[in-house]
Write a structure and sequence with these properties.
Largest sheet: 3 strands, antiparallel
Structural class: mainly alpha
Shape: elongated
Helix content: 40-55%
Number of strands: 8
Radius of gyration: 29 Å
Strand order of the largest sheet: 1-2-3
CATH class of the largest domain: Mainly Alpha
Order of helices and strands: EEEEEHHHHHHHHHEEEHHHHHH
Strand content: 5-15%
Distance between the termini: 78 Å
Number of domains: 3
């Protein structure tokens, strides 16, 4: 026989000191909670008498409504237990609540499809990846918004940390995706605001650490002997090109075309894939030499500089194809560059994105003004660029500690 009781969830207290009231069902030592649609201060609730105290201005009406809810819940449970010999606590909850609170996963999946054309493919895919991850841990699709409590989320964080060994950044992102779905449901008035359980979570952040290559290290990679026109050679040259071309991201180097470069001005002019902004800047001799190493004679404006993309039409017409091809090519580039770095015994885990950090730190070390570095990297805010300036200062501090007594 299931037991039913009203519980004030004080662990979900909001900023005004009010806590949500829930109907608690216990059956076979399993517990489920259903929102009663009421929020009270602890001083306004009598746990023993299961009533709203008279110090609440609307106590009589609220108690009548709550009594009716409990009576209806007990009636639903009794009817279901008479009809079905072995009824699960989940079925009892569904019978009591009806469609009062929507299914979390059903809503989230539909929301992802609604916004699919308004977000990047990577964002859309990441939403599904992290929803799948949470669903796999919960073990069922039958999860309602009010099932996702602070306690449940703390258990999930424990699983991410202790079982999956996820770092703080991955844990944070795993929770943030769930929080986004809650915020959207609240915005659409599908669930009440007090159901939002994330305010009580404290998510740790990993210290921001930008790895980069020193001049002698990226020069060693550049001088490493490779078979011309091999994949390793092409990806290595793309990596060095990025270091000397404003730290262009992999996607922009991959789809770099003849029309994006002005011979007369030695200037790159291209819409950046991540920001969607037109970006232009002048390049130096190293980047110039790499362009002319790969640029074909009598090349057409739409021809790619680097011979990686083989299906130009599909790449630009099909967003899914472009995303998948870019991801796989980036992984291949990282593999080849890291293999070179290992053979050179470099003490840094090298990926293509390090070229961006290397450009910034190298430019600042050579005396370029931070405003110019920020402009070349197409940063929205100079505070992002200041991270690299901080790295330079830390390097200087270490030099003082090691060499000045």
């Amino acid at each position: 026989m299931a037991s039913i009781k009203l519980i004030l969830r004080t662990n979900q207290k909001d900023q005004t000191g009010h806590s949500p009231l829930y109907i608690r069902i216990i059956k076979d030592r399993k517990t489920k909670f259903i929102t009663a649609g009421v929020k009270l201060k602890e001083s306004e609730w009598d746990e023993v008498k299961q009533k709203v105290k008279k110090n609440h201005s609307n106590s009589a009406r609220m108690n009548a409504a709550l009594s009716q809810k409990i009576a209806d819940a007990e009636g639903q449970v009794a009817d279901l237990e008479r009809k079905v010999k072995t009824v699960s606590i989940k079925k009892l909850k569904e019978a009591i609540k009806g469609k009062e609170v929507p299914n979390f996963f059903e809503y989230s999946r539909k929301h992802c499809e609604r916004i699919r054309n308004n977000v990047s493919i990577s964002t859309y895919k990441n939403y599904h990846v992290y929803l799948d991850k949470f669903e796999k841990w919960v073990g069922t699709k039958d999860v309602y918004f009010d099932d996702i409590t602070v306690s449940l989320l703390l258990d999930y964080l424990g699983y991410l940390s202790n079982v999956l060994k996820n770092g703080n950044t991955t844990q944070r992102y795993s929770i943030m995706i769930l929080a986004i779905m809650f915020k959207e449901a609240i915005k659409e008035e599908i669930i009440p605001e007090y159901m939002y359980p994330f305010n009580k979570l404290k998510l740790k952040k990993d210290a921001s650490k930008r790895q980069f290559l020193k001049k002698e290290q990226f020069e060693a990679i550049n001088n490493y002997k490779l078979q011309e026109n091999s994949k390793a050679c092409i990806y290595r040259d793309m990596f060095i090109f990025s270091i000397f071309a404003g730290g262009l991201r992999f996607s922009d180097v991959l789809e770099f075309q003849v029309k994006h470069f002005s011979e007369e001005e030695r200037r790159i002019k291209k819409v950046i894939r991540k920001t969607g902004r037109m970006h232009q800047f002048k390049i130096g001799q190293v980047a110039w030499d790499i362009i002319h190493k790969y640029k074909k004679k009598n090349a057409e404006p739409d021809d790619f500089i680097f011979p990686v993309i083989t299906n130009k039409e599909m790449f630009f017409k099909n967003d899914e194809f472009r995303y998948t091809f870019t991801e796989s090519s980036n992984k291949a580039a990282n593999f080849q560059i890291q293999r070179i770095a290992k053979k050179l015994e470099l003490p840094v885990k090298v990926s293509f994105h390090i070229s961006r950090h290397t450009f910034a730190t190298n430019a600042l070390n050579n005396g370029m003004r931070i405003e110019h570095v920020s402009k070349l990297m197409d940063h929205n805010d100079i505070s992002t660029t200041q991270i690299y300036a901080k790295i330079i200062n830390e390097e200087l501090d270490n030099a003082v500690d090691n060499y000045i007594y």
